[in-house]
Amino acid sequence: MKPLIGVGMVGYAFMGRTHSQAWRNVTAFFDLPVTPSMAVLAGRSRERAAAAAAELGWAAVETDWRELIRRDDVQLVDICTPGDSHAEIAIAALEAGKHVICEKPLANTVAEAEAMAEAASEAAARGVRSMVAFNYRRVPAIALARRFVAEGRLGEIRHVRAQYLQDWIVDPEFPLVWRLRKEQAGSGALGDIGAHIVDAAQFVTGQLLTGVSAITETFVKERPLAEDADGLSGGSRTGGRGEVTVDDAALFIGRFDGGALGSFEATRFATGRKNALRLEVNGSRGSLAFDFEAMNELWFHDETEPDAGFRRILVTEPGHPYMEAWWPPGHGLGYEHTFTHEVRDFLAAVAAGTDPSPSFQDGLRVQRVLAAVERSAANDSRWTPL
Amino acid sequence: MKPLIGVGMVGYAFMGRTHSQAWRNVTAFFDLPVTPSMAVLAGRSRERAAAAAAELGWAAVETDWRELIRRDDVQLVDICTPGDSHAEIAIAALEAGKHVICEKPLANTVAEAEAMAEAASEAAARGVRSMVAFNYRRVPAIALARRFVAEGRLGEIRHVRAQYLQDWIVDPEFPLVWRLRKEQAGSGALGDIGAHIVDAAQFVTGQLLTGVSAITETFVKERPLAEDADGLSGGSRTGGRGEVTVDDAALFIGRFDGGALGSFEATRFATGRKNALRLEVNGSRGSLAFDFEAMNELWFHDETEPDAGFRRILVTEPGHPYMEAWWPPGHGLGYEHTFTHEVRDFLAAVAAGTDPSPSFQDGLRVQRVLAAVERSAANDSRWTPL
Amino acid sequence: MKPLIGVGMVGYAFMGRTHSQAWRNVTAFFDLPVTPSMAVLAGRSRERAAAAAAELGWAAVETDWRELIRRDDVQLVDICTPGDSHAEIAIAALEAGKHVICEKPLANTVAEAEAMAEAASEAAARGVRSMVAFNYRRVPAIALARRFVAEGRLGEIRHVRAQYLQDWIVDPEFPLVWRLRKEQAGSGALGDIGAHIVDAAQFVTGQLLTGVSAITETFVKERPLAEDADGLSGGSRTGGRGEVTVDDAALFIGRFDGGALGSFEATRFATGRKNALRLEVNGSRGSLAFDFEAMNELWFHDETEPDAGFRRILVTEPGHPYMEAWWPPGHGLGYEHTFTHEVRDFLAAVAAGTDPSPSFQDGLRVQRVLAAVERSAANDSRWTPL
Amino acid sequence: MKPLIGVGMVGYAFMGRTHSQAWRNVTAFFDLPVTPSMAVLAGRSRERAAAAAAELGWAAVETDWRELIRRDDVQLVDICTPGDSHAEIAIAALEAGKHVICEKPLANTVAEAEAMAEAASEAAARGVRSMVAFNYRRVPAIALARRFVAEGRLGEIRHVRAQYLQDWIVDPEFPLVWRLRKEQAGSGALGDIGAHIVDAAQFVTGQLLTGVSAITETFVKERPLAEDADGLSGGSRTGGRGEVTVDDAALFIGRFDGGALGSFEATRFATGRKNALRLEVNGSRGSLAFDFEAMNELWFHDETEPDAGFRRILVTEPGHPYMEAWWPPGHGLGYEHTFTHEVRDFLAAVAAGTDPSPSFQDGLRVQRVLAAVERSAANDSRWTPL
């Protein structure tokens, strides 16, 4: 029997559900040296947390995350709360010697992210591991894209075109959920989905952004108040309206340290685009294109072959990243397994005693890009170096 | 607490893995009146069955399916073996008063399928339920296609174009696995994947085939022998070659009882097509198109709207079949959840005391189509009525 | 100055317009040893023919095609009439020593086509050239497909999937135009568009059909009468209804002399498909896919390359067939230039004193396939060898 | 007989060829009150101009554009030269009372464009017409997109995503053609193709840009010298290398006067993208997407319909802009007919005595955007109002 590693998860909304699915299934597909045990779920309301735990498969419940960290049956803390609590929970967990996987964006401010990265660095010295949950890195097609770039199949990278397009708040009567409040969410489309394309672009190209110029906009300034609304769906209306304090859309252009130019757009107002995380990369020898709405496909153009053209690689072959574990070719995966792969990689690193990636330091770098975007947007779009 | 229903699964290869995934996850997403308990897995080799049970989450192991049926903790039998054993296991289970879900094709011969349908009919009179596992009916996009036709949004159906294209045996050195032996598999591409498109076409249109004209072919007549090869991947070569005794491809044209014409093609030699179950339906008011390689999309053309065109419906909205249970729009599902939905529907029917669909009778109807295809192909492609 | 070759065109409806466009523009793009002169247009109504000639650029008008053939300024006759007059005109022209390009299908019956092929053969001995106008061979993407197969890039061909889908008579009130009358059109979808996919399939694979099994159907049996209706658009209604005497759809399966299986479908009832001539070819080393609705694209899968997938070749590069003459890459061509290329090839052959392709003999072969389809459909779908 | 209008064209390279094609064919498809006569072609080399005239169908040749303007048989001047000569030729022609159609960008500097717009305005008062040749407005799909926005089918516009991606100079050994020299071309990708997406975005949305923030880049700083190279293809190498003095790529973000945000990218380094003029527009009620590489398709999402999704409208129906004149549905057009439509609209305006669109004033507005992009890029990407 493999050693068990007890997991405590804080939060059980959208991300809590996806992470639970990952913990529940990872060992059915991946042969890991440790076996995760879904030990405890923390949520403020005992009643609701207990219902969620029953549904999602957690053995116990706590109403205070501090208690969760304190438990002996928890060796690993999974943080699925809004961004305003990430720093406090993560730092406490790391100091208590618990491995930490934390949802993105790492924090709501650069200062918090710096403190977290420092805590992670100190913890790592003590063998305690941490990872920020940029799950889209674990889409097999995006992992394959990274491999292609790393192998030089694109040559010198010239262009990155990254968009994350959603439309769930196009209706001005959609209520003022926590994701539209700066104090909880930190920012709007920028931090929620813009963070993903910044990370994906840097991950796939292996280059870091060196500066940006940006504009942001809030199209709908006020929305109906509601309570018990989780991040994506509206709860019950309470009457009255409140101010939207985050961006609806963020557009920026930038430069990478390897010479590439980047164009970025994150918006919740792209009517008809549901979860279109799109990435296109052009290099001197080839190009790549990806759209999460067709997540099992990677489009690759190899300029060096005769009669070249973008080809649709169905990323479901045994040789493709993560795919050895799954179904026969052509039998695609769904969204949730980005988390299964994330958890797999985190557990493998914990068991091997190595630092998983992306680290809190990587998360901090993304946070700095988000902050630079906000500064540029507030400062006449002026070029803002990183 | 909801009542438990004990599940016993026979077989643990490809289909066993997908069904296990469904049993393990169904209650995390669907609110059902009963809770399945993964009680026991049966396989001939105790060692291998035990390893599979541990990996897939089954509590116990049997080496004889008769023992599995006999157990008190088993109220429901899930048959994931090759087609040559379906009839015997299913009939025994039904007679023992166990609900049965059976992989497709229902049987290897019409005679077996008839016996199974009769047993199912008798069992139903005693409140024992049965279902044949045409999982593709539970792709949300295909269920939505059925809804569109049933609502009249396509008008009178004129054409069905159904293809199931794979390429996993294009290489003539791919070994002689059981799926290429008539005595175990019954037929080749015809029964394995042709059965799916016959069922899908009849399900979506609500029409039954009334006759067919067919050709079949075995492109590669001999292949290397191998042992321990499961259905899709080759095991270790044992030296020597053996005869391929099933079809590599089956093409047929037919007529439906509502007046539509159908064109069908099932092949394992469509190089580059991995799991392309494609369905196109043309009616007097509109058309539909689907390809499983992009399983979260349904293409719909509404002739009655101005500036009409095929539109890509991302079948991930709460109002779409099964999708209320899942992630936000645009966060697609993978192959495995066709089984999660299947199990959900079966459990719901069992709990409600209603007959699930597709029934063994439906499976028998498909079997008769497969037999007619083989007869026509053997008889100068002559029209073969059903 | 290059020698002029006088062209006389018979008919000025849809095909007459496309051919005129080709004659008018060919020398602006292709460097040919002869220059076509648009000498004379023949049509039964002098008034209408004169109007068409003015619009389309023809220098003179005749009301009897026999006069057109007789003229000294006509060295080449272009036949754009319905199929019932092809044989008479073509044979007369060839006997008069005029080169002939004749619209497809070559004739309305095999007997006529045989007479035409014989006349063509005799004329060829005297240096008089003839060609049947299967224009889709001259889509650059289809010509490139042929090149790929000829070069062995697909290996051994296993499957051909050919469809020609239109929807212009889905409305039962669309009138009874000549294309729906057997005495003029010979057959319906079969001869009009089915002929194209038979030719395209044989051309691309380099294989000939050896037998077929077929069904045909006329969905709408009666339609409003109309006069002055050309082939595709309805003229003015005259009251009353008449019988549709041709097929609305034809489906057939067949075998090729190189071992491939073929599935064919020609229909005018595929709602939402406007001019979807689709061809998919699977071979042991690769596959091809084409849809005329995206005529500048050829999809090619090369099984021998790593991370293979169907790639979209934009067939607009200088090295692609016919494309040296045109715009820079990515600036696609339209439908009409299939005719420009056809005329180019015909003039080049005439000037070189070689036999152009496809010959009347090729047209006869297609005619025999059409006849076999009709015989099989009338004879219980029985296998009908060629 | 309709009155003739004599056309004199200056330049005969790429644009000269496309315009010639338009003049030669426009009356075969469109019923216009005037008939263009291809009177005279001007080029500096008499020999080459004469060869081009013979090939393209021009009746006479001049070696000095001033002579062309002076001729009595020229009532309309078509300017197809590089941007550095536009102002001089256009102003002289307008002053001589000749109607002028001028290639884009209108000029190489704002000052020149202002002078041209002023000359156009004065000429208009005398009944002399002028138009700048933003041909992509005349892609039927783009004209239909404009119609949809104007009809309110998209609601309030939120986002414009405009890209013009080419790859013809990815190879660093591609020579230093005139399009890479600032003194002739004015700018690089920005003026050549960026001008098109600025115009298309403003045209489709009916909104004007109010400010931009930009970066530009020249990836390859030096290239081989060559002579006789026209704009797109390299001539013969002369030895040595010269400096590239224009941008290879320009990225900018901006705001429109109706509240929309815009993201723009023009590049000649998007490997595998040949002529991908892409436009995506998101509004509160719907969205549009277009890619010139599939020029006969417009993708439209109507948020107000049930089961919404982007639908592929084949813009080949009689009711679509310009399409009444052409082939049956599904028989697409090619690149060249953007010019045929342009010439049609210009002739119609000239005949009707109305001002055609886009005017030189519109061309000036685009020029100001290009200048603002360059200023912003040179000034730390600072926001640059228009």
TrEMBL record, chains A, B, C, D:
Organism encoding this protein: Microtetraspora fusca
Pfam families hit by this protein: GFO_IDH_MocA, GFO_IDH_MocA_C3
InterPro entries: Gfo/Idh/MocA-like_OxRdtase_N, Gfo/Idh/MocA_oxidrdct_glycsds, GFO_IDH_MocA-like_dom, NAD(P)-bd_dom_sf
Signal peptide interval: none
Protein name according to UniProt: Gfo/Idh/MocA family protein
The Gfo/Idh/MocA-like oxidoreductase N-terminal domain, residue ranges: 5-124
Record bears the keyword Electron transport: no
Domain GFO/IDH/MocA-like oxidoreductase: 144-288
Isomerase keyword on record: no
Lineage of origin: Bacteria, Bacillati, Actinomycetota, Actinomycetes, Streptosporangiales
Keywords on record: Oxidoreductase
